[in-house]
Amino acid sequence: MSDEMLDDPRITAMGLFVEAFSGLNARFHAQLAEHSLGSVDFEVLMRLARSPGGELRMTDLAAQTGLSTSGVTRVVDRLERDGLATRRACPTDRRGSFTVITPTGLARMHEVLPGHLTLIDEWFTGLLAPAELDAVLGGLRKIRDAVRPDATSGVPSLRSAA
Fold first, then answer.
1. What is the C-alpha separation between 14 and 105, in angstroms, rounded?
2. Which domain holds residue 106?
3. pLDDT tens per residue across span 93-118
4. Are 55 and 102 spatial neighbours (Cβ–Cβ below 8 Å)?
5. What is the pLDDT of residue 56?
6. Which contacts (CB < 8 Å, 24+ apart) does range 80-88 have?
7. Which of 39, 55, 136, 142 could form a disulfide with 98 if both were Cys (CB 3.0 to 4.6 A apart)?
8. What is the number of other CB atoms lying within 10 angstroms of the CB of residue 115?
9. Single pTM value for the model
């Protein structure tokens, strides 16, 4: 292996991305724990809260979160147990079901979001000038769309905004 490969800017880019994500994730994890939420639970509730009618098909929720169908079932079971979400049968497909955020789940999101937005501003978006943020968002969307093309499955209006 040559030293040139070790100094490749692609390695630097990936390393910086991972370090930034890990640092942000640690801060978010601690803040979410204060509200008795794990990061996956928060992601599911956020996706439900931002979806029309506060609901998503279970298959779309799995696609958006990158969870397996059994993984999303376990998360939704936990959210149901805690009264934060519920399931509703799909009226057009007996095999399908929707996950719906409950008023309690929405209230929990309203409790969590002020602190979460403060962290986002302090450690991410607030560190960037508007043009830098636009460039980062554009780049992240491009990468997301390439590596997870179904990440906005079931929510066509969020394709460009998610």
1. 35
2. 9-154
3. 778 899 999 999 999 999 999 999 99
4. no
5. 94
6. 84/41, 84/45, 84/108, 85/44, 85/45, 85/48, 87/58, 88/55
7. 55
8. 14
9. 0.85
CATH code (residue 136) = 1.10.10.10
Q: Is residue 29 part of a domain?
A: yes
Mean pLDDT over residues 142-148, rounded? Answer: 92
3-state secondary structure of 68: coil
Structurally, the chain folds into a number of domains equal to 1
Asked if the structure places residue 30 within a domain, the reply is yes
Strands (E), 4-109: 55-57, 85-89, 97-101
Q: Let me know if residue 96 belongs to a domain.
A: yes
Nearest to 43 by CA among 100, 109, 126: 109
DSSP states along 24-45: HHHHHHHHHHTTT--HHHHHHH
Per residue in 29-49, is it b (16+ CB within 10 Å) or e — as a string?
A: eebbeeeebeebbbbbbbbbe
Give the mean model confidence (pLDDT) for residues 113-138. Answer: 97
Q: Residue 56 phi/psi, 5° resolution?
A: -145, 150
Quick: pLDDT tens for 10-25: 999 999 999 999 999 9
What angle (nearest 5°) sits at the alpha carbon of residue 141, between those of residues 139 and 145? 120
162 is a domain residue: no
